[in-house]
């Protein structure tokens, strides 16, 4: 589903909420302008940003940290607010009585107090009554155009992208050489000649790509030894160990170990028992991880 909010509008809303991102959950033109369609897609997720659009060009809506439901009751939320965009500028209207911030009505979409309702009574229209727990000017909010051309509800999620780099590194040639020398000259504390580093992460996190990148840096040219690509399931199905070499010289004292990615679905992806077996040295290079029979 395509966002109707511009990138700048998304950033402006997110700046009010912290280091977050928006994930589109409901779109009236696709799922239907009904309370049932809205609740099917949006109940029990939170926080959310709900946005209405009309033919007059107004973009407006509300935020709540409370999950939607169909109880018919008001829900307390001292962080709820309504908003409208004036170009890229956000005009914000905080809730005046948090006890009545959100109303959970089954035949309507997002329902803020009695002041603003998007998708009202199973129609692509807005209910607007300023002063009922939110104070705003109706002309400023939506231009008194109460017919919706679109309604969207976004789930607010924590963002893994840092607002700014946590440290600044100048990637000069000498810096690169220094880091390479540090890795090449590393001496393991135990009697082993090489240490093994296990790469663990979700499907698509880039474990195999990370190895290929490191290997390419030390070889001096691009190497695609580990299988990479884009898929909803792990492309790596074997436990693989990869030695690193400095050009055509000796092996480095580090071996990178790649394996199947972590997945959310039960019985899919790398299992905790697989990880234990790897740590104990019970899996040989090339072992088909997905054939591992997990004990019950």
What do you see in this structure?
The protein has 296 residues and is of the alpha+beta class. Helices cover 20% and strands 26% of the residues. The protein has seven helices and 15 strands. The strands form four sheets. The chain has a six-stranded antiparallel beta sheet with strand order 1-11-2-3-5-6. A four-stranded mixed beta sheet has the order 12-14-13-15, covered by helices on one side. The chain is elongated and about 75 Å long. The two termini are 40 Å apart. 29% of the residues are buried. The model is unreliable at 291-296 (pLDDT under 50).
Silhouette: elongated
Cα-to-Cα separation, first versus last residue: 40 Å
Number of strands: 15
Classification by helices and strands: alpha+beta
Tally of DSSP helical segments:
7
Let me know the largest β-sheet. 6 strands, antiparallel
For the biggest β-sheet, the strand order reads: 1-11-2-3-5-6
Estimated share of beta-strand residues = 25-35%
Which blocks of ≥5 consecutive residues have pLDDT under 50?
Answer: 291-296
Q: Kindly report the oligomeric state of this protein.
A: single chain
> Could you spell the SSE succession in H and E letters?
HEHHEEEEEEEEEHEHEHEEHE
Helix content percent band: 10-25%
Could you tell me the radius of gyration in angstroms? 27 Å
Brief write-up:
This protein is an alpha+beta fold. It is built from 7 helices and 15 strands. It is elongated and about 75 Å long.
Secondary-structure topology with pairs:
Blueprint (H helix, E strand, L loop, with lengths): L6 H9 L4 E8 H4 L3 H8 L5 E7 L4 E6 L9 E2 L5 E6 L2 E6 L7 E2 L7 E2 L3 E3 L7 E3 L9 H5 L5 E11 L14 H12 L10 E4 L8 H13 L18 E8 L5 E8 L13 H8 L7 E2 L8
Parallel strand pairs: 12-14
Antiparallel strand pairs: 1-11, 2-3, 2-11, 3-5, 4-7, 5-6, 8-9, 9-10, 13-14, 13-15
